[in-house]
Amino acid sequence: MIDFTYVNWNEVPLFSTAAEAAMLFGVHEKTVKKWINQGELRAIRTGNKSNGPIRIPKAALQEYENTHLIETESQPERTFEND
Predict the structure, then answer these.
(1) 2-71 maps to CATH 2.160.10.10
(2) pTM of the predicted model as reported, rounded to 2 decimal places
């Protein structure tokens, strides 16, 4: 389990990139891609199905949060604006 801060789901688009998901969860983009490759985080490829861009549905991010992450109070809320 990974410690995370509260995610403001109202700020999250319906589909996110791996980089955006990494920002939300406070991890590296490669970590998000690892979760996808291991089948832990649901994602879809757009365009070319073998190497097209990855998009992660908002519902998949919420599901991952609920099943794999634990909340801490030590960090501020994460949104796309907290770069």
Answers:
(1) no
(2) 0.71
